[in-house]
């Protein structure tokens, strides 16, 4: 069955995005790319592509799309996707009060291909706000995946909670004697120096997911 121009653009984007990232785009990402502001219109066209046997969908996950051309015999859509909880925002810049309101993110997840992250124990996701880590290829709007741990090695990118200020920030960690240097990856910004007793590590960054505009 033939495709409309819009459906062909959506199919091409799903194919390109999936090849580049290893997982399919969300409905919102598809809409942003092809110029559709309504998620219901995107869903309508995805339903049409499904009826035309171009894609398969698992509506229980946010990235539950698969191109039929990529299907492996006996492999069901969605079984190779894993869900990582999205716990809120973290600032890559000056620290801000923490934690972010967890109710605003209740139930939200980041869905990944299993082969991208085979071990999800103690892994959670945060959305980055700010540009202090741009030289580490972390931009505002990106999603960082963190492995929960309370210790870090020098140079690790961590979520650091400042106890006295009740603030949190994303920075490179360096222990220097009795103090900690939280180093931005932006030459226009100064490091933050804190007594080691005031810094609590809440996780180490293990993956960055780029937001595509």
Describe this structure in words.
There is one protein chain. By secondary structure, the protein is of the alpha+beta class. It folds into 2 domains: 5-70, Winged helix-like DNA-binding domain superfamily/Winged helix DNA-binding domain (Arc Repressor Mutant, subunit A, Orthogonal Bundle); 81-209, Umud Fragment, subunit A. 18% of the residues lie in helices and 34% in strands. It contains 3 helices and 12 strands. The chain has helices spanning 5-21, 27-34, 39-51; strands at 55-57, 65-67, 81-91, 96-97, 109-113, 123-129, 143-147, 157-162, 167-176, 179-183, 192-195, 199-209. Strands 3, 4, 5, 6, 7, 8, 9, 10, 11 and 12 form a 10-stranded mixed β-sheet that branches. Strands 1-2 form a two-stranded antiparallel ribbon. A hairpin with a 7-residue loop joins strand 1 and strand 2 (65-67). Helix 1 crosses helix 2. The chain is elongated. 28% of the residues are buried. Residues 72-79 and 96-106 have low confidence and may be disordered.
- Work out the number of β strands: 12
The domain tally reads 2
Q: Output the CATH class name of the largest domain.
A: Mainly Beta
The total of helices stands at 3
- Fill in the CATH topology of the largest domain: Umud Fragment, subunit A
CATH architecture of the largest domain: Ribbon
Per DSSP, what share of the residues sits in E-state strands of 2 or more residues?
25-35%
Largest sheet: 10 strands, mixed
């Amino acid at each position: 069955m033939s495709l409309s121009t819009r459906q062909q653009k959506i199919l091409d984007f799903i194919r390109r995005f999936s090849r580049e990232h290893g997982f399919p785009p969300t409905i919102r990402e598809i809409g942003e790319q092809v110029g559709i502001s309504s998620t219901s219109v995107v869903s309508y066209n995805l339903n049409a592509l499904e009826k035309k046997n171009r894609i398969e969908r698992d509506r229980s996950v946010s990235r539950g799309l698969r191109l039929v051309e990529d299907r492996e015999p006996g492999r069901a859509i969605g079984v190779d996707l894993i869900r990582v909880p999205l716990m809120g925002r973290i600032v890559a810049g000056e620290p801000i009060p923490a934690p972010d309101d967890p109710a605003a993110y209740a139930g939200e997840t980041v869905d990944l291909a299993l082969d991208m992250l085979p071990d999800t124990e103690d892994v959670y996701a945060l959305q980055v706000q700010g540009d202090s880590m741009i030289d580490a290829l972390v931009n505002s709007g990106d999603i960082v995946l963190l492995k929960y741990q309370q210790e870090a090695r020098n140079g690790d990118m961590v979520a650091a909670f400042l106890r006295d200020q009740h603030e949190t920030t994303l920075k490179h960690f360096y222990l220097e004697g009795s103090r900690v240097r939280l180093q931005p990856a932006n030459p226009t910004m100064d490091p933050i120096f804190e007594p080691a007793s005031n810094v609590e590590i809440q996780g180490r960054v293990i993956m960055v997911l780029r937001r595509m505009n």
